[in-house]
Specification:
There is one protein chain. By secondary structure, this protein is mainly β. It has nine domains: 169 residues; 80 residues, Immunoglobulins (Immunoglobulin-like), CATH 2.60.40.10; 56 residues, no CATH class; 53 residues, no CATH class; 58 residues, no CATH class; 79 residues, Immunoglobulin-like; 71 residues, Immunoglobulins (Immunoglobulin-like, Sandwich), CATH 2.60.40; 74 residues, Sandwich (Immunoglobulin-like); and more. The protein is elongated and about 170 Å long. The chain starts with 16 loop residues before the first strand and ends with a strand.
């Protein structure tokens, strides 16, 4: 902070106008800005707000990112918006407080020398009162969140203040901007004590000066060295001794506010010069960092004005010459010089800790190897290679620096070794993995007689990460066998050859060979051979060769023989008929033999090639045929008697508004196929049809025909559809994604909406997410608290589109 002597804290009531200049304190102020008086820094919170006792040079700075405001204060300033997506949020708030003497004040705000470019918003200001300094409601009197850095002032007018009440000034850097600020009094207010003489003035020996005091309480006391014409009153003539030298005087005025009770002083010095002029004297300034702006004072500490040369160079150490202005009443003063040191920026250097293995504890030093302090960004990530940026502290004359820390991942060796082999198979365990990791196995060799576990341990590597060990489980399967036995059957009969093995889990396949007069055999797989064989001669045979398998393991094949003897073929037509109750079906067997049918139930006769069956329930009939040569054979047929179908269903709802989704429940019995018509041009053959949607109003008839394949039945019902309902849209204004199970997700509630499309933005206009259907929600992710904005497009059931936008608060 730049400090000036001869000033003291003056106490006053704010009554009309004061001016705030924001600037970096080590830089030059804009024209018209007063110098800094000794000042207490702004408070870190409302409870520690600094009382303003002197608006004629109060100086402070906005700090690094930190927020102390309670939620009600954040909510109050959050209503101050430049646009629908850019609102007042706190980043590095600091606080002053004052007591006004009238109900209106005017502020002129100068924004100057902030860290970010001129086009960037620099300062946010809010003026408010609060009964409690750390909680409870806030009465916001004024806010402005778009003060850019510029030389012209931003004017603020605040009304409806209560004289004698305490008010707070919140000063915040937009998006963590760092700025300095100076508060200076202007006309029209009850100011601190001042006088119409410079605090360091020059007179020639024997001269006098008339000094008039103003501000303060209006009552003044004068004291100091000899030469005062009076010790009280607003105007006094000062005639200092004629001996060259410096003479000090003080004006005192008691005053103050409830915040700042104090006694104000105005001190000034008169330098008496003899003929010939005095040598100008200056307080040394600097050193500065290259590129840092500074100005040279045009008036010396002993009151001599003049000019400097050469022009200021902010990048190089240089000596400047002060030339006093000519024509002084006491004679000309000599020139003087001042050397301003400009230090060049240093590049911080660091020792790179990488490469490191993923998950390794990692820390970055806050001081470089060449002594520069600062901070790193982004946050340390020990799972992936990252480039970090070092930003020197504000008091360092240094450049930013970057360092990339390589993070390696551990390697897991991979092998192309089968997990299952047959007994006797040889496997060589490789000492180098498929991805080029070398190591050793335990046990070292493969045992092909039994299952086992084999562990590969990588050799120690030279990199940052040691490869992981790998364990393989290799199953050794036993050699399977087959147990089977041949048999003899009659022609037309089915073989029954069970297949077994002494090894559990064995599967079987077979091939066949047969004599030319036997048919019906085929290759196959399974746990038994069940094939119907027919012999066209008196005798024949089939040989089955059976191969056992277990996984990839194959055992020794075994052959069995089936001998086939001739029998009388008997075939009944039709086979396995289905009829409805009360129907008849003729049964016929072809051939020149004698045939007997059983049972006799519901048959018109029990002998002959053809009978008529009229069963009341499902019945199996057997016919036995005997040829003239004495060969016998039998045949069977099952007549399935189906109950008559009964078509029925329910429709829910039977009435409603369009679009109406009707769910159909099929309650039909004794049916196997269905035919639906819905009265809206649609149909279905599904047993349980999909939900039927009626999009227009009217009356519709649903018809169901249920069939069992033989007979059918029909059922009907009516549907009445009304007009479409109106859409409902509800937009919440807050949500709290703190995973407490309540209000954790943000969404726009709708009823009777066909489509929903929502976009959510942060206050900088960045798209956070999209909600593209009615059930979509946003859980907030890692987004910070604050105000967010939404835009939506929603269509109702008649395709009419609704658009809207707004904002909501995210609180955790």
């Amino acid at each position: 902070m730049k400090m000036f002597s001869g000033r003291s804290c003056r106490t006053f009531f704010l009554s009309a106008v004061f001016t705030i200049f924001f600037h970096a304190l080590s830089f030059a102020q804009p024209a018209g800005a007063p110098p800094c008086a000794p000042s207490t820094p702004p408070g870190n919170s409302v409870c520690t707000a600094t009382p303003i006792c002197d608006f004629n040079g109060y100086c402070g700075t906005t700090p690094s990112k930190s927020v102390s405001a309670w939620q009600a204060l954040r909510n109050a300033v959050g209503t101050c918006c430049q646009s629908s997506i850019d609102c007042f949020t706190l980043d590095n708030d600091r606080y002053l407080k004052f007591v006004p003497s009238s109900n209106t004040i005017d502020l002129n705000v100068y924004v100057y020398n902030c860290q970010k470019p001129l086009t960037t918003k620099a300062i946010q200001i809010a003026i408010f009162s609060a009964a409690d300094c750390s909680s409870g409601p806030v009465d916001l009197k004024y806010c402005n969140m778009q003060m850019n850095q510029q030389t012209a002032p931003h004017n603020i007018n605040v009304n409806n203040l209560t004289p004698g009440e305490t008010y707070y000034i919140l000063i915040d850097g937009y998006s963590s901007q760092n700025c300095g600020f100076t508060i200076a009094a202007s006309s029209g207010i009850s100011t601190g004590l001042t006088a119409d003489i410079n605090q360091n003035s020059t007179l020639c020996a024997g001269q006098s000066v008339t000094v008039t005091a103003s501000g303060g309480s209006g009552s003044y006391t004068w004291s100091g060295d000899a030469g005062l014409s009076a010790t009280s009153g607003a105007t006094v003539t000062v005639t200092p001794p004629s001996t060259p030298g410096s003479y000090n005087y003080k004006i005192t005025s008691n005053g103050g506010t409830s915040l700042c009770p104090s006694s104000s002083e105005y001190n000034f010095t008169i330098n008496v010069q003899a003929a010939g002029g005095a040598t100008p004297t200056f307080n040394q300034i600097g050193p500065f960092c290259a590129g840092e702006n500074f100005t040279l004072p045009v008036t010396s500490t002993n009151g001599i004005s003049g000019t400097w040369s050469p022009a200021v160079d902010v990048n190089t150490t240089k000596t400047y010459t002060f030339t006093p202005a000519g024509g002084g009443g006491c004679g000309s003063s000599p020139t003087t010089t001042m050397t301003i040191t400009v230090n060049q920026k240093v590049t911080p250097s660091f020792t790179n800790p990488g490469p490191v293995c993923s998950g390794t504890s990692l820390a970055l030093p806050i001081t470089s190897t060449n002594g520069i302090t600062g901070t790193w960004s982004p946050a340390i990530n020990n799972t992936t290679t990252t480039t970090y940026t070092f930003t020197p502290a504000a008091n360092e004359c240094a450049n930013t620096a970057q360092m990339t820390i390589v993070v390696d991942n551990q390697i897991t060796p991979s092998f192309s070794i089968p997990s299952s082999v047959c007994s006797g198979t040889n496997i060589t365990l490789p000492v180098t993995s498929d991805n080029n990791v070398s190591g050793v196995w335990s046990p070292a060799t493969f045992d092909n007689t039994q299952s086992g576990t084999y562990t590969f341990t990588p050799n120690s590597g030279s990199g940052s990460c040691q490869a992981n060990p790998v364990t393989l489980n290799i199953t050794v399967n036993p050699t399977p066998d087959v147990i089977a036995q041949g048999e003899g059957i009659c022609t037309g009969e089915t073989t029954n050859i069970p297949l077994a093995s002494s090894v559990n889990g064995t599967t079987f396949s077979w091939t066949y060979t047969s004599t030319a007069n036997v048919s019906g055999a085929s290759n196959g797989t399974g746990n038994s051979i069940n094939q119907t064989l027919t012999c066209s001669d008196l005798t024949g045979s089939v040989t089955y060769t059976i191969t056992p398998s277990l996984g990839a393991c194959t055992g020794t094949p075994v052959s069995v023989v089936v001998n086939v003897q001739a029998t009388l073929p008997v075939t009944i037509t039709p086979q396995n008929s289905k009829i409805c109750a009360g129907m008849s079906v003729p049964l016929n067997v072809a051939g020149n033999a004698t045939y007997t049918w059983s049972p006799a139930t519901d048959l018109n006769t029990t002998t002959g090639n053809t009978v008529i069956a009229t069963p009341n329930s499902t019945t199996t009939y057997t016919v036995t045929g005997t040829s003239a040569a004495g060969c016998t054979g039998t045949g069977t047929v099952t007549i399935t008697v189906l109950p008559n179908p009964d078509a029925s269903f329910t429709a829910t709802p039977a009435t409603g508004s369009a679009p109406l989704a009707v769910t159909l429940t099929n309650t039909s019995t004794n049916s196997s196929s269905y035919s639906w018509t819905f009265g809206n041009g649609q149909s279905s053959s599904a047993p349980i049809p999909p939900v039927v949607n009626y999009t227009t109003s009217g009356s519709f008839e649903i018809i169901l025909i249920a069939s069992n394949g033989i007979c059918q039945d029909t059922a009907k019902t009516g549907i009445i559809v009304f007009d479409l309902p109106e859409i409902v849209i509800i937009t919440p204004n807050i949500f709290t994604p703190n995973k407490d199970g309540a209000n954790d997700e943000y969404f726009i509630y709708t009823e009777n909406a066909k489509t929903v499309y929502v976009e959510i933005f942060n206050r900088w206009g960045n798209l956070m997410t999209k909600l593209e259907k009615p059930t979509d929600t946003w859980d907030g992710g890692n987004s910070p608290e604050g105000v967010y904005f939404y835009k939506y497009k929603i269509t109702d059931l008649s395709d009419k589109q609704y658009e809207g936008h707004g904002f909501f608060h995210l609180e955790r």
